[in-house]
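Action item from last week, closing it out:
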Amino acid sequence: MPHETAEPYPLTNAYWKTQRAQCHLDDLREAVSTFCADAHTVTSEEELERDQVRYRVYLKQPHVSVYLICGDFLQCLRTALDQAVWSLINHRTGIDSEDSEFPVFEKSLNSDMQRKFNKKTVGLSDPAIIYIESIQPYNRPAGLPLSTSRLWCLHELNRIDKHRRISVHAQISLASQDQFGFVVPGADCAEVSEERTDYGYDVVCRGGYKNLKPKISPFVIFGEPKRGIFMDIEEIGQLYNFVTDEVLVALASRAK
């Protein structure tokens, strides 16, 4: 169901955008779940000379529709931030701003960037401006990469999606040793390694459990490798929570 809020005004339009984003997110979750349910097949080959079993994992890749749904989700969510800024400015000043935007800056503001920040936010209340500045990517904890900023990830993925496809691909995770199956008394645990191949993965098992088929779970990663963004579907969902339950709530409380 779409997110609902008791008192959306003056951010009514922004919340409508997040409600549409929620629809896209629901569709995206369903598409990913359907894909993962039938994303791979496995064959096995025992390699006696190496005392190991090689499991060949043939991994499909998501249909282009998954990328398209994700792009729609990101666009609605990023637009909600811009519309929130416009709405707050209009609410306080009555001005239909043509320059307003929710600013996102990677680096600390020099004089030129400060002018750009001010131009995007002029008309907002001081508390709203202070809050927006506080969540800028450059204010993340020292030593952490940009990808830990949810605001930056949303902004960057949406920016990339306007020009080219964001990366959407399948990967696998392997169960821990104790999930291989029943315990064989006196047997060694399975030693497991994985190798990337052109068809997916080779999972190589050695030791006493090598003939017990490992538990393989496919999942989908969204992101941009060149920018260090790698997000699964739950982390994509966290972007929605960040905008709807944190940023918009904070801005609404700083409307005047």
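Closing note: The first strand starts at residue 40 and ends at 47.
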